[in-house]
Input
Amino acid sequence: MKALFSYLIFPGFLFSACVGLLACWVDRKVTARLQWRVGPPWYQNFLDIVKLFGKETILPEGAKLTFLLSPCLGLLSVALVATILGVGILSPAHSFMGDLIVVMYLLIIPAASLIIGAFSSRNPFASIGASREMKLILGYELPFILAVIAVIIKAKCAIKLGTIITCQMALGSYIASFSGALAFLAVIFCMQAKLGAVPFDLAESEQELMGGALIEYSGFPLAIFKLTKALMLYVMPLFLIVLFLGKDLSPLFLVAKYTGILVIIILIKNTNPRLRIDQALRFFWGPMTIIATLAVILALLGL
Amino acid sequence: MGDVVGKIREKFYGQIIEFEEKSERRIYIEFKPQDIPEAVKFVFRDLGCRFATATGTDTPQGIEILYHFSYDPRGEVVSLRALIPDRKNPQIQSIATIITGAEWIEREIWELLGVNFIGHPNLKHLLLIDDWPEGKHPLRHDHG
Amino acid sequence: MLLWPLSWLYWGYDMDLKTRALTKSLWAFHAATSPCNNCDIEVLDLFTPRHDVERFGITLVGSVRHADVLVVTGVPNYKTGERLKKLYGQAAKPCFVVAVGGCACGRILFQDSYNSPCPVDEIVPVDVYIPGCPPKPEAMIAGIMKLIKKVEGK
Output
């Protein structure tokens, strides 16, 4: 019963949906102010989701059941990640051995659900978007995993979120060391790609691919995809905070750190154009992997 | 404007019908329709002008087609004019074999003015729908 | 949903949450049926800092299936007319159509043209006409307000 409450309400689905939609609004508002515009009001994203629930859902011809199931899969897994992270932050003693690996696996599922949904749409634009997303996943997973390995090594090889948090509370944030700083740099860009934000929003590039992977979605499934995106915007910076900035997780500092990472995301988003897929792959398998490997080596050396 | 026009004048001395200098950097040179491919080859390949576009008009003397070439280093435009007197069945040699970029504009001139381009690889409708009635060319003065 | 009675209390009995959310978050798809592009430039002007339309919740979307409003510019000819009909069929209802510019409203000087069979409102049902050649962005915002009032009045 308590597990159901923490999955659905706090810190699971409902709480992270609200925070995530507000974070999406912050992104839109800051982008608008940077362009000297006014920007939408704070309840805009909530109204978008409500409006999408009220539109009809069109099933394209030949679409199988996966067309409707895949968005739900993505949403459920992100809500689970939000629950695990929330419980880990609130009471580090409750995390279980190996939950870090569970979180990393669950974080691939939203991107995979996008790919499955796009392929089941039977649309050539959607398949281009989905194949780009597949290649992007191959690109950013490597430096991401290497950077997380660096953190695990620094936490004395404990694959448990609670242990990582308590180690940081005792010894200091991992970002304050050389290996931690390098790993943080690698993870920032991997997070940008995981969130599907410019300069890595190839899968859903609006102007180029007419909506890309989401071209055939309308109404209820589209609302689920937008919610998944909002939840990812809540979950990913939280994951980063737990791994790298976990020294002081009292509510005030947590909000300040979350806002700081959100500012970094928005900054990178507004100052860069969109990359092509080969440029993105070269970026991830070149500089980012080198930085992440350096971080692992430095962590092994104890720096 | 000197050297481009001078070179054309000295190569095609006998074949040029008329020069017309419309303004300081635009000149119209009139040829017979049979001499157009040779002139186009010379202007495009040897002089290095860029093919800008082709235009067609229905005039009382016949159908007039202009090929506009731009000499980019100095911003000058040389237009080669061909007047086809036969209005029942106008024909001219296509330049799509020399300049691939002229394919579509010749399709457009064919479908709207009725000029048959001999040797064009793909003479189909471009802007109008495929089952447009035969023989009706909208930009002719005697249409509709 | 349990929000329906709350919205009933807030906005009165003649408007429900669905309509309210629809009017405050219109997603527009720009369908240009061979215009001269002046109207398209003015439509894009709406998203620039001077007449920022995103504060009303309106954004441009890439796919027709995400759209609530189909913004039509230009005179439909034989080729684009049938595609416009297909586009309207592909949009998820409720979807409204706004005809922007004199050409989309009544074809002005292209009425007797050889390539234009009928005006836009004989192909798709138009909700709001915004005349002008091209209409000023302020006129388009007034048209959007009329569309919102029309949707609320339904």
